[in-house]
Amino acid sequence: MRDTIDDEACAWLVRVESGELGTHGQADFDAWINADPRHAAAYRAVLRTWQDIPALPELADLCSAPARSGAKARKTLIAVGLAAVAAAAAVVVAILPSLHDQRFATAIGQARAITLSDGSTVILGAHSSLRVHYSANERRVALVDGEALFNVRHMAGRPFVVDAGASEVRDIGTRFNVNLGAASVQVEVVEGLVQTRRRESKAPDRLLRSGERAEIPLYAADPVIVSAASARNLPLLSQDRAGPLVFENVRLADLASDINRYYAPGVQLASPAIGDLRVTAAFRAKEIPAFLDTLSAVLPVDVQRQPSGAFVVRVRP
After folding, report:
1. How many angstroms separate the CA atoms of 146 and 128, rounded?
2. pLDDT tens digits, one per residue of 56-84
3. What CA–CA distance (Å, rounded) separates 18 from 15?
4. Which of 228, 259, 286 is a domain's end point?
5. Which residues touch 149 (CB under 8 Å, ≥6 apart)?
6. pLDDT digits (tens, 9 = 90+) for 15-47
7. What is the value of pTM for the model shown?
8. Which residues contact 158 (CB under 8 A, 6 or more apart)?
9. Is residue 239 part of a domain?
10. Domain residues for 304?
């Protein structure tokens, strides 16, 4: 049984590193690696040896071999390397990682667990999208829309960086959540440390520790707000990834963008001016209409429900 799992792990590594998974292949890979803890352990073992290949003198020729053109040639080279090392030393290796992109997305109200090729994991939130670009020197992920919870495997000399809007979040061996809202990027550290910065800004990098949360406005003129995050309940941390939506003194614009990831009819702010109003609230996705019906009781706004089920929020006259 152990040999079978190891063989499967090798086969998956070949497919992942040759860049030929595609959307359906990624779904199959996720299902395989999450089906049995031994699968994830075997894949991590394969991956560790693969990453150590530059330090193995007996494989120097494989490392320095010129790149061959075409996915088929690359797949063949990886497979040959795996087979040769498995037979000679009972370990599995592959050539250094290629530059290739992977894209992931979720539908409204649905979250998805993803295992990346380096063994790091991501829980991609509802109605969110992610682009992954790994190279030999850097692991870079772009949160294009929505929210993601990252559990990063630390690798010296190969940093893990998340781009979200105009902000950059650099992992320092940690677990953290990034939410790209309509008005700001919210970064919350669950474990460890992260370093945040705004690209094209002269402001110094900011270090966030476990239990801290940063609200980084999309517009550089607004200040970054750092606060304690111990009371915030991230829905992606719950076992069913569908915990309550908890908002603590957040901009109404960011709350609305979060609601739109869970509520298909949507909520629209009629005026940008009300987007900076602050609100604290907690509710489940199924309670969104009830919450919006009561919003005018706590903020100076009028809320109108449309026949389609959508909500429009306007400045109160």
Report:
1. 4
2. 444 444 444 444 445 555 555 555 555 54
3. 5
4. 228
5. 122, 123, 125, 175, 176, 177, 190, 234, 236, 237
6. 776 666 666 778 888 888 888 878 887 887 777
7. 0.69
8. 118, 136, 137, 138, 139
9. no
10. 244-315
